[in-house]
Amino acid sequence: MISKRSYYPWFLVALLCIVGALNYLDRMTITTMRSSIVEAIPMTDAEFGLLTSVFLWVYGFASPFAGYLADRFNRSKVIIGSLFFWSLVTWLTSMATSFEQLLAARALMGISEACYIPAAMALIMDWHTGSTRSTATGIHVAGVMVGQSLGFIGGWLAEAHSWNHAFSIFGIVGIGYAFVLVFFLHDRKAEIKAGDLDTHQQEAQTDLREALKRLFGDTSFIMVLIIWGIAGAISWMVSGWLPTFYKERFNLSQTEAGIYSTAYFFPAMLVGVIGGGALADWWSKTNSRARMWLPAIGFLIAVPAVFVASYTMLLWATVVGFLVYALTRPFIDANMMPILGMIADKRYLATGYGFLNLCSCVIGGIGIYIAGALRDEQVNLTLIFQLAALSMVVCALLLFRLKPKAKPIDE
After folding, report:
1. How far apart are CA 103 and CA 108, in angstroms?
2. Quick check: 115 and 86 in contact, CB under 8 A?
3. In this predicted model, which residue has the larger pLDDT, 42 or 20?
4. Would you say the C-alpha torsion 384, 366, 336, 224 has a positive or negative sign?
């Protein structure tokens, strides 16, 4: 088994990048297959939005418990189990023949995927010191972006074959990769001798009530919850409805709209999240608040870009505007877990990130559903995107007010 500390931390990130890509490919591809799915299973825009909202709500509410499992038990086994079960659900989704069955499948996917992100982020924090933490986190999130950027494949497969075909293929690939990870993924704490921790520390490390007390007794954690919740709403409202925006505003086909909303958009986010992580690691050597200020600056740059992109009737200007958003919005993704490491007890990082997911997904799900309901009332997507832009100003202001409560762990 690969275990040398010199290269395993980065090998681990590479392994998890693939899992992260599958994680978001399975959950996001439905947005690029909207026309094919609605044609096969008739539903309103609000109902279609509900497919993603239900996933987010279930995913969000399950996340704190999933995070606690990752803190309490072996993180690697939690990751492998999550990948296997959500891939199985993805394959089962291909057999749905009604809206109710699709809705149930999305809810099951929410439960099965919830265990991955908190465990993966915490495992990366376990293996990487402060000098590489944002970069490592950013690279992992970049893997997620790769999965999102490949979302157009779903729209292509739906037009070339059927929407069922895409879910079937993605599910089988994920199940196979879960078996591969059994041989390569392992926890850092497996290398720590039990004698290095006394009995009291081991018990406190897995106490849920103590975790809740530590996390919610800190006002900084509450502020981070609000920031991540708003950021989640912004991200899901933009990514969830961008294919539809391109298709309707510029009269594109489903495949063309999928390409414009994913093929350039998510690679740009990949560059932004890796760059944001590396820049934060570099800046943090001279500024203890760098990991908080950089995402705030990124939000403020993205605000005018989204306004221009959603208002103009020029396709190239829309592409440029959303490209700027895609480059700077991900600064927060690369730095949120390191920020959590600066304000929270290191024993409860996965649990804390689980609560961040809860807040993000509940608010994000509400945002997507409201956007769908507004569309049913003939409200233009331009207004919805501009509301998202204004929300980024709120995130930036809160980030500037946030202060580290403790020295980042392992620094």
Report:
1. 9
2. no
3. 20
4. positive
**How far apart, in whole angstroms, are the C-alpha atoms of residue 56 and residue 236?**
10
Residue 409 contacts residue 346 (beta carbons within 8 Å) = yes
Cβ neighbours of 392 (radius 10 Å): 24
> DSSP states of 295-325 as a string?
HHHHHHHHHHHHHHHHH-S-HHHHHHHHHHH
Give CA 241 to chain center in angstroms. Answer: 16
| 284-to-31, 83, 277, 298 alpha-carbon distances in Å | 37, 34, 10, 16
Q: What angle do CA 73, 78, 84 make, to 5 degrees?
A: 155
AA identity, residue 25 = L
Mean pLDDT along residues 202-221: 75
User: Predicted confidence band at 407 (pLDDT cuts at 50, 70, 90)?
Assistant: low
Angle CA 220–391–339, to nearest 5: 30
Predicted confidence (pLDDT) per residue in 265-291, tens digit: 777 888 999 999 999 999 988 898 999
- Tokens 């599958």: give the residue: 22
Contacts of 224 (CB under 8 A, 6+ apart): 336, 339, 340, 343, 356, 402
**Amino acid identity of 294?**
L
288 near 177, Cβ under 8 Å?
Answer: no
What's the CA gap between 169 and 171, in Å, rounded?
5
